[in-house]
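Problem: given the chain below (192 residues), write out its structure.
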Amino acid sequence: MDKIDILTEEERSIANKIILEEMVMIQDQHQMEEGNLSLVNIPFLWNEVKKEIIYIPKEKRYDIKFYVRFYHINEVKDHEKFDHKNQVFEIGAKYIEKEELYCKKMEEKANLLTAGYIKRFNSLIESYNNYKKEIEELKRLKVVFETLYEQEKNSITNRKNELEKELNIFKEKERKLQRTYKRLKEKLSNLV
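Solution.
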């Protein structure tokens, strides 16, 4: 931020008058070389001259640095230059304080305006994390149940095979017993 940007309206009008006087002087000196200067050129001249503005504490006004009325810039005492720099610093500090206060107000307003969205966002993140945990738990349970299903299926098949073997053994024994009974019955009938 330039020093000139924090000037009051009165100080700006004084500076504009000084610039207009400079324009008249420049116009007189360079009219042949550069042509006529108009009020349209004020922003250009303002930018050129604003770097050269100095505060003169004795006169309590701003003036052109290299064209101070009644005396040359080298005649401005060091303490006056220091006073000028000090005043510019104080003006800048006040401006920074204003900006800081404005920023704090804007931050509070933004917090109020976005608080509902932030709470909603946080609740959505929390529910997302809960669903994610549930999905992971369900995936683990699925793997466990699939493993149990495969083991159960294998055990059922094994048990079925064992039972079929036992059944075949019992059937074979039954057949043997039936044949033995039939033979013994025939013997008995032959004996009687």
